[in-house]
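Q: What would this chain look like folded?
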Amino acid sequence: MSTIPLRSDHVKANTHGSESAPPVAARPIASRIPVGRLSRLYDRIEAFVSRLSVRDNFWHRICSLIWLPYAFFSGIKLTAITADTYAAILPFRRFNRNFYRAMAGGALLANSEIAGGMYVFGICGGDFTVVCKHIEYTFLRPCFGPAVYRMTPRENVRQLRGAGEEFNVTLDIEVLQQVSTLGERDKRVGKCQVTFHVTPKMQQKIKNARKKAFAEQI
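A: My prediction, written as structure tokens:
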């Protein structure tokens, strides 16, 4: 009886007679991103809260009370100077003062990050995550009144956001003491350089899916 030789193009089967499943690494990354009902509901709620937090100062304070209580109790708020220029105002309240009735250095430093983050997140919107990467603060003189943070970006934030990729943005922040006397200029009490890393949330999900796939291979 003659035998039929196996051709090299025959598909190899496993012990159950079916084709072997592709390894985890061969599956598309997008197929590993959670797309269930709970995941979609969470994404919608997160997007809604993100848009609400930058709508106005009232909703920003409500969201800060839940997720960023320090910003809530410090009372910092973002205000528009012109159409493209924003500043943040830190009130001179007991929570922000030290024992000799000056603005505490820790309050000035911590709120520099909060003010810059509010500015960048307000431009980028709820589809991005904003994380502080580096901050440098220089103290120049004591602050005996409300502090004003005037922010100037080194890069075009709107143009970088439109590219849809992750990017870094550096802000130069002038910290001024707001004066109450008419005609007197605000006094500069400090200066700050802060760098934020901005990532699209979808890109972050793809990164997490890749990490999960790598962990499954180990």
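The longest helix spans residues 105-124.
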